């Protein structure tokens, strides 16, 4: 029997085989899918949905569609298919994202519907803010070159003048030197954006890094602030750069402690493993797994609504004395390690909101 005849025989044999059961097809479908009844209660979910929401099928069944997507769907048509594009979906956690919801009725079951969630390939925070880091790097490089060199000349001239003027004028020369030092320090911080060399990444114990960052920050900030730790001790190593992660966590801890320092509030550090958390790479050609979650949470008021969407942009700050570079640098350092940082205001038990800065980081390869 030649190859073609053998192939036809195998196809005929397969054609005689019984069809795959619907449960197997549902489970194998790569698109997250739910079945809901006429009241919006979830009756079934496939494996892709379990991965997306980081909950088991048993836990999902019986939940309301609003608890999984942030939308009741009560006002949507029940007898005809529809698609809701560019929807702000809120997954359990809560985890906000942009997605399309496709809903279709099940003809043999009155009021029942199938809901599929299609995440936007370019809607993740990495894609939305991909240009911000490059813009900041270009601006920092230009300003550092054009400003920092003349500053040293100005400071030197002020020092020479100080020795040849009267006491009243010396106060002015010291003021010039202080202001030059302040601007130079600002330029030093901006220069962090200009370093485009790849980081030397390796396995890191995130809890050791968190402990070091906490020890550093407690020496200078928030003596009246309580810090809680809610850690997953079984967390695998992170793939990252130690010094950069320490800097990121120091910046986030400093912001959190300043936000609650006046009221004597609480800062909470958490770690967790999030199955199925993936984001699109900046190149847009693959999804990167970021299963390790680190959160810095505070009870403070959060950022003003008008700047909340721009917190990671350079020169945007809610502080009177802020320079707007701390969070921009945090995002750059996290992105350089293949990770993601998010800001959110999330409700907790009792209804009060809190500020959450969430780091999503890659896992180190197994040896």
Structural description of this entry:
The protein has three domains: 3-120, Beta-Lactamase (2-Layer Sandwich), CATH 3.30.450.20; 128-193; 200-361, 2-Layer Sandwich (Heat Shock Protein 90). It has helices at residues 3-16, 22-28, 47-53, 57-60, 65-69, 125-128, 130-162, 167-190, 206-218, 242-260, 305-308, 326-336, and strands at 33-36, 42-45, 82-91, 95-105, 113-119, 202-204, 226-230, 238-240, 266-273, 278-280, 287-289, 292-298, 340-347, 353-361. Helix 9 crosses helix 10 (242-260) and helix 10 packs antiparallel against helix 12 (326-336). The protein is an alpha+beta fold. The chain is elongated, with a radius of gyration of 27 Å. It is built from twelve helices and 14 strands. It is 40% helix and 23% strand. The longest helix is centred in the middle third of the chain and has 33 residues, at 130-162.
Structure characteristics:
Beta-Lactamase; five-stranded mixed beta sheet; five-stranded antiparallel beta sheet; 367 residues; Heat Shock Protein 90; alpha+beta; 3 domains
Number of domains: 3
The number of strands is 14
Largest sheet: 5 strands, antiparallel
Per CATH, the superfamily of the largest domain is Histidine kinase-like ATPase, C-terminal domain
CATH classification, class level of the largest domain: Alpha Beta
Question: What is this entry, summarized?
Answer:
The chain has 367 residues and is α+β, with helices and mostly antiparallel strands. The chain has 12 helices and 14 strands.
Please give the structural blueprint.
Blueprint lengths: L2 H14 L5 H7 L4 E4 L5 E4 L1 H7 L3 H4 L4 H5 L12 E10 L3 E11 L7 E7 L5 H4 L1 H33 L4 H24 L11 E3 L1 H13 L7 E5 L7 E3 L1 H19 L5 E8 L4 E3 L6 E3 L2 E7 L6 H4 L17 H11 L3 E8 L5 E9 L6
Parallel strand pairs: 7-9
Antiparallel strand pairs: 1-2, 1-5, 3-4, 4-5, 6-8, 9-12, 10-11, 12-14, 13-14
Helix pairs in contact: 7-8, 9-10, 10-12
């Amino acid at each position: 029997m030649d190859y073609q005849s053998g192939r036809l025989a195998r196809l005929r044999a397969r054609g005689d085989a019984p069809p795959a059961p619907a449960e197997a097809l549902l489970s194998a479908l790569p698109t997250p899918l739910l079945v809901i009844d006429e009241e919006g209660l979830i009756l079934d979910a496939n494996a892709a949905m379990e991965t997306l929401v980081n909950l088991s099928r048993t836990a999902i069944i019986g939940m309301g569609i609003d608890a999984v997507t942030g939308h009741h769907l009560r006002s949507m048509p029940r007898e005809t298919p529809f698609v809701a594009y560019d929807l702000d979906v809120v997954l359990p956690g809560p985890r906000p994202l942009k997605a399309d919801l496709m809903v279709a009725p099940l003809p043999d079951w009155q009021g029942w519907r199938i809901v599929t969630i299609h995440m936007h390939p370019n809607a993740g925070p990495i894609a939305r803010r991909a240009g911000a880091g490059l813009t900041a790097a270009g601006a920092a490089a230009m300003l550092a070159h054009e400003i920092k060199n003349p500053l040293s000349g100005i400071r030197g001239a002020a020092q020479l003048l100080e020795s040849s003027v009267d006491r009243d004028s010396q106060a002015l020369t010291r003021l010039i030197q202080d202001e030059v030092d302040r601007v130079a320090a600002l330029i030093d911080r901006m220069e962090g954006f200009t370093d485009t060399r790849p980081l030397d990444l390796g396995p890191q114990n995130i809890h050791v890094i968190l402990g070091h960052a906490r020890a550093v920050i407690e020496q200078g900030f928030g003596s009246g602030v309580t810090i809680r730790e809610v850690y997953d001790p079984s967390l695998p190593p992170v793939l990252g750069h130690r010094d950069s992660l320490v800097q990121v966590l120091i910046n986030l801890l400093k912001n959190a402690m300043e936000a609650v320092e006046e009221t004597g509030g609480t800062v909470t550090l958490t770690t967790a493993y999030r199955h199925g958390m993936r984001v699109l790479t900046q190149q847009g050609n693959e999804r990167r797994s970021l299963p390790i979650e680190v959160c810095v949470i505070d009870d403070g008021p959060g950022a003003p609504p008008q700047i909340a969407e721009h917190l990671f942009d350079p020169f945007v700050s809610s502080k009177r004395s802020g320079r707007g570079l701390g969070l921009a640098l945090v995002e750059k350092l996290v992105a350089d390690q293949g990770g993601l940082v998010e800001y959110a205001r999330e409700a907790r038990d009792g209804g009060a909101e809190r500020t959450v800065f969430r780091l999503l980081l890659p896992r180190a390869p197994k040896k």
